[in-house]
Amino acid sequence: MNTRVRAVVWGILLTSMWGAPALGQERPWEEFQDQISGELCGIINTVDLELVALRSSGQLMAVGEFGNDIQDFILPGVIVDLNSTDQAGGFPVFADGEFAGIIAFEEDGEGVPGLWWGFADSPEDPLLIVSYDVATDLINRSTDTPANFAGTPCDACLLWDDPNACAPPPVITPPQITINFCGAGGTATMALTFSGLLATSLARRRRT
Hints:
Order of helices and strands: HEEEEEEEEEEEEEH
Shape: elongated
Largest sheet: 7 strands, mixed, barrel
Helix content: 10-25%
Structural class: mainly beta
Number of domains: 2
Strand order of the largest sheet: 3-4-5-6-7-8-9
Radius of gyration: 25 Å
Number of strands: 13
Strand content: 25-35%
Distance between the termini: 36 Å
Number of helices: 2
């Protein structure tokens, strides 16, 4: 068998035996990137709540509240349209089909960019942050802007109740193996890492 073909076949064989490299678990919430600062945030802030937008449905779920714990409370009838943005780059929110503000990046009182749910009548107007009443499910436009807050959370991993959602993939140390090449008159020892590189070179690139 041609040496190049033999190496490729061996790489495929080892990949099927040991599996492809482990990938990190996809997080169940959407992460948004600020086009100005490059900041990546999963936490959506309001006056009362810290929320995430569920990746599978666009629903808003509370992962923290000032002074109270309402973990895993999904706001009924509230959906973020993750597939479209307004002229200012904000993601529209709908409550029972009616427009209910936007999700957008704004700097807080310390100049730190964060993700906020609020109302702005035009791109030039300040974003007025939503106040959500968990007892009545009413969405209210407050008079607060992001500048009225400090210490704005961004990383949803800090508030998510399942640590496995943010755990890095396990590190697997490949064992050493001995290979007898036919006709080579000897043995060669190599790490499975080499075979992984061969298999990776054949793998089709995919979007993560």
